[in-house]
Amino acid sequence: MIYCLDCAESAPMLSRALAKSLEERELTIDTGLARIFLISDILHNSALSSSRGATRYRSTLQELLPGACEQFGFWLRGKGRQSLRQSRSEAAVRQVLDCWRDWSIFPPLFPAGLEALLFAEITEDTDAKAKNDQDPELQAKLAHWQDPGTAPRAPYAARLRGLANSTLPVAACVLRLCHFERFWHSADPARRQRAGIRSPGEGEKATSF
User: Fold this and answer.
1) Which positions fall inside the CID domain (predicted)?
2) Pairwise CA distance, residues 1 & 144, whole Å
3) Whether the predicted pLDDT of 166 surpasses 80
């Protein structure tokens, strides 16, 4: 950890290596969790450090984590998710996201977006999916993001929510924003509250951006 902070000028390179390590196909549960914990440790210590360039870790990882977590999610969901050990690993990842939220390292909804990428696959909108979107409040949120007038703001909104990096096309950002709304609309109420997202019928804590 001291080495990482002492070499903060190399934060972009080290951050890319860390993020890339989450995308390997043949991870063991222990290895995957160890890498998440290492990233968390670097984020925490760089936030506390007064060394020049330490904030580069946060800014670089903020750009890289959405893509890394989406790939890590494929691994996390595919490792026997019914097993007790898998349930514990998912709980451990959520605890890390909660720590990032408590530390205020990223924008408020950023960890919630990472959680949506980790624990649910993004799929294209279909007629079958539309049948499951009957709740009026959910329909209103989806319509907001699918409105062509909202499209110019979609990339910024997706980045604030931990759903995209700065190069993702508008259409992909809209798809991820709709994924975010569906994921949290159907989530456990206690989990929604922990993530800073209001339950259906209570309004939205976050802005439209």
Assistant:
1) 1-122
2) 43
3) yes
